[in-house]
Design brief:
Elements: H1 2-19, H2 23-42, H3 49-70, H4 75-102
Helix pairs in contact: 1-3, 2-3, 2-4, 3-4
Length: about 100
């Protein structure tokens, strides 16, 4: 099991190194990518909770794997990662819901 976490840490580090993007920016991009992928798979509007909840589930799952890989919670980093991942998908969903309600 330990070898899987070593592979995981290597892959995560490699993505950051190869893209040159910060960890925070990668979380933002991942959140938006998961939201649009969930939109395509579920065929639910971005204004519904379904794509956003997929982003939230993915963010929580990634942080649980991070916890297992690092052996402990790194709470400030964990909370910042979750916020970075879900912030823009949440804003997009709320904005679309607000626009729909005004129509």
């Amino acid at each position: 099991m330990v070898e899987y976490f070593e592979i995981y840490k290597f892959v995560v580090q490699s993505v950051g190194d190869r893209t040159g993007a910060s960890d925070s920016l990668l979380h933002v991009h991942a959140g938006m990518a998961v939201m649009f992928l969930a939109r395509l798979v579920t065929r639910r509007s971005l204004a519904t909770w379904t794509p956003f909840l997929a982003v939230l589930a993915a963010a929580l799952a990634k942080e649980i794997v991070d916890r297992a890989a690092h052996g402990a919670w790194r709470m400030p980093d964990t909370m910042f990662d979750i916020i970075n991942t879900i912030f823009w998908p949440f804003v997009l969903m709320v904005g679309l819901r607000w626009r729909r309600a005004r129509s």
